[in-house]
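Below is a filled-in request sheet from our internal design queue. Each sheet records the structural input a requester submitted and the sequence that came back. We keep these sheets so that new team members can see what a complete request looks like end to end.

REQUESTER: design group, bay 2
PRIORITY: normal
MODE: inverse folding
CHAIN LENGTH: 200
BACKBONE (tokenized):
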């Protein structure tokens, strides 16, 4: 069987050599992110995914916050120098997407459907993962590189304060994106027998 989706998925890779040499405008990228997330499924159509798309100095601020937070816990100067160099590759991109979960909706559903209460947090994570995958692939389709980072909850308070985010929006991941300045490395896979089972 042919699959345009699978062909497109091969373009979705973790790109760490990012630049700001994109032809798309911030408005165009913002629109792409919005439409992609709106069409991504969530349990009970709960729409728990939230996204903040940052450009320019605002995007840089995210990685300055990460650097400040890590400097407080990484005491070895050499180790921090390597960390700071890694963060610089994210900061060099065109922008950053913050992915968050609306915990108010999760808690509302827990009360509304007590029989499923234990599941809603997990289902929100599944919805978030689907949205992240979809956005990442949509960016790749447009020749935009990205990677997915997780410096939360270390940076949660500072991010919320810096960008005046609602308290109930829980930060879950950060996606720096930009022009692809160097390709991703080789992708390896486990043997199919370790991953899949066909039962007829």
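RETURNED SEQUENCE:
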């Amino acid at each position: 069987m042919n699959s345009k989706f699978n062909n497109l998925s091969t373009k979705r890779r973790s790109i760490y050599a990012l630049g700001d040499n994109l032809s798309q405008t911030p408005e165009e990228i913002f629109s792409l992110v919005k439409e992609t997330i709106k069409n991504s499924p969530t349990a009970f159509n709960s729409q728990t995914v939230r996204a903040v798309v940052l450009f320019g100095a605002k995007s840089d601020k995210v990685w300055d916050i990460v650097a400040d937070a890590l400097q407080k816990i990484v005491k070895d100067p050499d180790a921090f120098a390597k960390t700071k160099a890694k963060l610089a590759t994210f900061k060099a991109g065109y922008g950053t997407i913050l992915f968050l979960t609306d915990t108010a909706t999760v808690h509302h559903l827990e009360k509304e459907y007590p029989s499923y209460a234990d599941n809603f947090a997990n289902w929100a994570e599944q919805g978030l993962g689907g949205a992240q995958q979809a956005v990442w692939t949509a960016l790749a389709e447009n020749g935009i590189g990205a990677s997915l980072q997780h410096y939360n909850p270390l940076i949660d308070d500072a991010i919320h304060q810096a960008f005046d985010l609602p308290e109930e929006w829980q930060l879950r991941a950060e996606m720096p994106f930009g022009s692809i300045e160097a390709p991703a490395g080789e992708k390896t896979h486990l043997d199919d027998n370790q991953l899949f089972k066909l039962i007829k």
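SHEET NOTES:
- The CA atoms of residues 17 and 181 lie 5 Å apart.
- The two ends are 19 Å apart (CA to CA).
FILED BY: M.R.
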